[in-house]
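ok trying this again, last paste got cut off
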Amino acid sequence: MRPNLPSDFDILGPRTLLALTAGWVMVGLFAGSGTWLAALWEGNSTDLRTAYVPLIVAGLCWVPITVWAVVLTRRSPLVWPLTWRGAAPYLASALAVSFVMNAEWVLVMAVAGAAPAGDAVVSVAANGLRWMHVNVAVFVVLVVAAHRIGLPGNVPQTSFRQSLRAESRGRTRLLPVAAIDWIAGAGDYSTVHTEGQEFLVNERLKNLEADLNPQVFVRIHRSTIVNAARIVELRSLGHGDREVSLECGTVLRVARRRWQVLERAMGRTSAVLLAIVLATVGLASASPAMQEIWPTEGWTPATPQEVGLNAAPLRELDAAIRSGRYGHVDRLVVAKQGYLVVDESYDVDYRVISKGKVGPLGCGWESCNTEDDLHDFNYLHPDYHPWYQGRAVHSLQSVTKSVSATVLAAAIHNGAIAGVQQPLLGFLVDYDLSRVDPRLREATLADLLTMRSGIEWHEQDRPMGDTNTTIQLEHADDWVQFTLDQPMDSAPGTRWAYNSGGSHLMSAVVRAATGQTIAQYAEEHLFAPLGIDDYYWKMTPRGLPDTEGGLYLEARDLAKIGHLMLRDGNWDGQRLLPEGWARAASARQVERVNGAGWGYGYQWWRTDTRDTEIWAGLGFGDQYLLVLPEHDLVAVANSWNLFDRPDASILRGLINAVLTAID
């Protein structure tokens, strides 16, 4: 006999509304305190109105909005099982309060003088959706918490469809259906498993099923039904069998035929599961709550707004590139939080651009005198630069140095190299060291990586001609010996000088330490784990890969190198680089190496701008890899600006665009 219970009541009584409002005000106070303290930590003064008022006002906004949602649903409860009829008004409410909250925030900031009022419309449009996840999640948590602790005035729905009378050890209890994990039938009784406890129900399973919401409970066996909302994982066992893992820790095996039934039933619950997912993702912060993903098999696309970026500056950068303002830019990639938000290719015909061009760097399309002029180090011919032989891989030029140092770090992590304080010449005993300056014997790998080996080198202070040491290097038969034979102008570790020959010594160091070329070692220990399977590495006459500028990668693959640095050398649970390497390699090991005040690390530049830390790989012809650790962002730009001087620097344009998008 069914219990005599009241008809449907909703759980949103006056005291729950009061609890919701108080909860939101507390959230506002905590978040405001965090904003204020963070500003003080960074040395900024922040008006208290800016920190507290918007969030408190947003909390108060929940009162009329919640009442409105209750009226629309006609006392439909916010407890599982959810239906679209019950969930839609709450989702709409969350969306509305998201825009209200952001509008209040911007308005108060404008009043406080922290931002122009005109930014309100753009900010609300850009950030309203990303607040929705947090609002829905907090709202659900507060309502369910209020229901579970039994606040007076909150009566749960108690129709028989929402509860079961269960017997255990002679006692009778009324169980909320939403709390039930699964029910297994046995004879005239059924065992109900709920929140780690078991109860007996004195009815056959088939009779119980009629009283359960078919959109939530699904049969996976003739004697077992499961609460679909409690499923946390569905795993294949092969041969068509599956395992169903539940929140309570139970794992149930499902045969193929029953699995097909479960799949059809799960289709009926998709609305419920979608609502739950929307309500639970991204509770950690006001930034978009995106799941940690790894782009090994390819980047997952997202809109700038989904990762908390303002899309307008990125669109403006794209338009400026297409207008030709930044010269011959052919590729642009921006990724944030592991998601690809910009992936643009630009049609640049280097055959037309290079035709008739001849100079110290090579000869262009239909401009070479002999076939001997067609080789990997002809920088003007479109068969070799910037794309290699029509493939998708693009010349990185000196960004190669940053990637090569990362491969050397992998060798350190794997024990092939003891560390950066190892003597440099200890790896070069197969070369003629009889003519080297005695001071070079004191140089370490750290001196080499920071370009303070002391070797005299004229690259940035000479035009691209015969007097440039790097041009001389590329005409030499043995690049390593050529570099070692150069005179020294300072003691190791005392003077910074940009030296591509020194960077090429990394190729010889890795071969001596590992027995493999740096290309082979990179393929096994770096590229393969990152999912990079298409690359080209130019070889020097003695068979060593060119580590001063010879690597070609596709832009999205180069961005993976930046993402690896952001994750301190970890990749999907596997450590590829020594712990702390990313921070050491990108540190300002040498300060103010140029007039712009840039720093230099282990073959990585520091191009900090607007008080934002930027790690950078920079290459000839405008190749750029930018890593912004504070914002979990990577940006790549590929160009080939050898033929004409652009109106503006794509490096400056890219940095300004991403920083403005972040602001």
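PB: full thing came through this time. The radius of gyration is 32 Å.
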